[in-house]
User: What shape does this take?
Amino acid sequence: MPIGGFIINTLPQDCAATVTVLEQMAGVEIHATDPSGNIIAVIESHTSDSMEESVKEIEGLEQVLSVGAAYLHVEDEVEKIERGELVPPHPFKKNKNKRAEWA
Amino acid sequence: MSLTRRDFIKRSAAMTAASYVGINLPFAQRNAAQAADADHWVRGTCRLCGVGCRLELGVRNGRPVALRGVPKARTNYGYLCMKGMLFYKIMQHPERLKVPLYRARKDQPFKEISWDEALDIAAKEFANAVRKYGNDSTAYYGSGQCLTEETYLFQKVMRGGLKTNNVDGNPRLCMASAVGGYLTSLGADEPIGGYANIERSYCMFIIGSNMAEAHPVFFRRVMRHKLDNPDTVKIINADPRISETSRIADMHMQFRPGTDLALMNAMAYVIIDENLYDQKFIDDYAVFRVGKDAKQVDLASYKADLDKYSPEKAAKLCGGNITAEDIRTAARWFATSQGTLSMWCMGINQRKQGVWANNLIHNLHILTGQLCKPGADSLSLTGQPNACGGVREGGGLCHILPGHRVVANEEQRNQCEDAWGIPHGRIPPKPGYHTMAMFEAVNAKKVRAIWINCTSPAQSLPNVTPYRNGMQSDDVFLVCSDIFPTKTTECANLILPTAFHFEKTGVYGCTERRSQITPKAVDAPGEAMPEVWIVREWALRLAKELNDPVIKQCVAPFMDKEPDYELPKAIWDEYTQKLTKGRDNDLRGATYEVLESMDDGVQWPAPTKEFALTGGTVMKFVRGSDPMAETEAKDDKPYQFYGPAHADRKLWIWSRPYVGAGEEPDADYPLYLSTGRIVDHWHTTTMTGRIPELLRANPYSYVEINPKDAARMGVRPNDMIEIETRRGKVEMPAKVMEGPMEGMLFAYWHDMHEDRMINKVVNDAYDPGSKEPEFKICACRARRISGPKALKPYITQLNE
Assistant: This one.
């Protein structure tokens, strides 16, 4: 279950409203804000897939200017990959010469 | 993981982030050893783009468990982007190449073999090629993602050992025009300044770059500076396409692809016409030149050449949204700001007139004296993490030698031969094959043995189909050293598994001349080995096969050195202490010891350790900042342009005409086709395509179509579009958006699926000076072929 630390930036006047939205997102904890529009957030997720989804969702918010990653902890996931319990999924084309129809 | 440990880590995450912006959090961190998030942290550089972000890899029980930025690093100040954060997955990835693989013929499946067998085969095949077809039938094609030690050692063995200058690399496809521009305009490669100029600038001119997606952490600094100074900092974004970067621009200039040459000449016109140029700077430091012979001319002549580029004439030529008034405004902002910083990337470099486009940017800076003072700089953004350090500085192109020397200069060849302890005459006097010529030579059966390291030309070359066919022939023995199967390993006889970043030790030199070290932190999987070991072992066997002791001499200083640290260190020491001594990229102060002690790294020139420890040269050529500006000074002036390419020690303002693209739209192919990257993917997706988060966001290529064109073609979002050029066809789903201008398609280039591999159709015409291909512009036609289709992403697999 990965844990990430982020700095989310908004314009100062949009900060409070953005925090309200962020606090309603699953797995997102807001730890601090400051007058410049910096928001310190910790995102906890089931997989790094879903963390990436959350970051993308936050980046897509109208008032969010940028999301900067500062820290990411992934030990649980690395252990699972090593034990073979989690294989980072990626589909392969078995026959490269076959022309794609339903690719 | 226990709840208390989990809480501990969440607090670590929060505190790390808070520390970047100076926020104090209300909880104190417990020091309980059992709650540690990692055993130890290893500081290194990100593997991906040319920004050179510094980060720390947290290691626990020998495996990577966490990543965090380095807050004091002067490249990224701690910030990372999601691509950089996720590369830990590549280390453990089940598809990593782990053992050497071989097949005698390319229609056979690969078999696992031992390293001994593999290295013997590689040596025998190269030796056979030399004996049968000559030294120039061998070649090395490397990468801007190789460590400097790797590139340096490979080119040493090729030139001094195999006696061929057939050494080139994928920076030929991206940075060669920037190199040509720097050398012909400023007399020396690489930027005068660096990132520190962002926060000191008052005007930023961003052209041919979508840094918001291609260099996100760099863009963060630009964005931050603009937002902190909304009224005093002006940003001009010049791009035929509206991109993510355009959002922070005060002015977006949208011009027909290829007409940026006219646009910049028009800005120069305004600067001269309205007396906005810096006469004193020009008198002290510059000359005007024109033509193949670089004939010196005067301001009056230069001005006369600009007549056809009055703002009115240029606006007409450029089309798009360009008005004469906008050109005037942009020129005035540029000239009169207290510090103007230009930044550019592939839109300028990947052109048939790439060197000229670079010259025209430098012209604007030289004319207005926007150089050498805080905030003023012409800063070419490097795409790859080590195109500068390894390839441009370490001798990784066919016409250059380490330490910014050139093959064509006999004295400089001899300097290298002396440093290597080999006889004069070993390094051939003429440059070898540049990239496009190298793969043409494979097709023509002139190159019979080629080593491809850490790059995938079977996908990344322009007009890729004929070159891929050539690589697939059994007439060429192809060795690929890499971490994953790629479209190029599909063409190989021999595949060698290599250690990845943080699995080996070495140095990367980023965009701003800063060399930074990444030590080994975890073991490579299976039998994967660092490239420096592979080259050494191969060279020893080559020496035996060819009965040539000089080849052995090339690796003699590196015998009996263990491959994880001592071996790369010995190579770096030889390169920096012997080959950069006294050169403009003097790195003698940047020993491993110095680099390891720093949060970031060293900007050359840095001849001494004391100076290196401060971070090195912030502004080249400026007395007080650059120690070589003192030692090379010829007079009292504050700036000394001592670069190796201009004997007159002047900056050259080039009169260059507007020349269009190699292939312009016509009646049969009426649209412009341009291509580029998006934020989630790196190059050919060998790495990023295997990371599900990144793949999911953009699982395949799209083509962006302007809404007006879409309406005309009857295209709706996600419809399948066929794009056809004179070289072939591909099909992709459409994104209808105000991105590209009307009459232009913009396709993402990362997809390796046959149907969507856009490089099959782009033009391989190249700049006559830099030999860099014109990926960015060609002519196409397009039609809707169907409604949306369910597509799946495609990543190549071994033995398909």
About this structure: The longest strand of chain B covers residues 728-736.
